[in-house]
Design a protein that fits this description.
elongated; mainly alpha; 151 residues
Length: 151
């Protein structure tokens, strides 16, 4: 895990930038539908997992399970950040993208406030599902990594 986090340092910087951007968009009342795609943490995670899987295969010699494990680490860290930002949003009484009904319940949300308990349960599900999706993206990246040149 420590080696995965060491390799993930550039990603962690991007994750911090995207998290702050997402937080600011919400606190400055940029409409969710206009701004959520700009700083999407899930999209960032999927792209990064794919790229890390590909490049770590070719240039670091990672096997499939190691690349998937690195990607799942990225997914876990991202979901932990989302979970923490959601807790802070509720705890501080702020309306951010992290506690927006659409972010928690999906596109079928009615637009009403989401109860704290329901938000926590939703984020726990996201923790599991998105970590698995990141592992799949890392595996696909690993498969694509065979197409990269060796030097």
């Amino acid at each position: 895990m420590a080696e995965n986090l060491k390799l993930a340092r550039p990603y962690l910087v991007l994750l911090a930038v995207f998290t702050v951007g997402r937080w600011l968009f919400g606190t400055f009342h940029v409409p969710y539908e206009k701004g959520t795609h700009v700083f999407s943490l899930v999209t960032l995670t999927i792209y990064a997992s794919t790229f890390y899987g590909a490049f770590c295969r070719r240039w670091l010699g990672f096997r499939l399970w190691r690349a998937a494990g690195l990607a799942m680490t990225l997914g876990l860290v991202t979901q932990a950040v989302i979970f923490a930002a959601t807790l802070f949003s509720y705890g501080l009484g702020l309306h951010t993208y992290f506690n927006h009904p659409t972010a928690i319940l999906g596109p079928d949300a009615t637009g009403t406030e989401v109860a704290f308990g329901q938000a926590v349960l939703s984020r726990m599900g996201g923790l599991i599902v998105n970590m698995i999706l990141a592992g799949i993206a890392g595996s696909l990246g690993w498969a694509l990594g065979g197409l990269l040149p060796e030097d």
